[in-house]
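FAQ: What does the model actually see?

It sees only this:
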Amino acid sequence: MMPRMSILVPVLAVAFVAFCVWLAVRIVNRSERWAKRLAVALVVSSPLLYVASLGPACWAVGDLADANEKTINAIPVIYYPILRLARYLRPQVGPGQYELSRLDRWIGWYATLLRRDGASPGQLSTGEGVWFVPPDDPPPDEPQPDGSPP
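And it is asked to produce this:
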């Protein structure tokens, strides 16, 4: 099954390039209005679809414990521009200490909507793509780490 998947991406890339060439020919040679409108719609909608696909891509990965390592590592790479912007927008609260930005919180919320493990993609201050996993809460019956009752 994997050989079929490995051929899918190049085939889709070639089909996309062929479509773009066909659309450019329609615009340049025939000056068709519908082709111009379609080109504008594609240029406007592509960034929106890219941002909107972050959540479904994170949901498709599944829980980190069950997912393929290549897939886990691909999400921070594919969405590097969004994660980089979120890292850039973090306000500094102390020397070398940063608070989460609104975009970080939005990514965390959107990426974890349909995930059981609560993990969301992000970037460290070094630029390395990682998955942030919330800490496990102790069960309500167990005493807290500081010894206080539950």
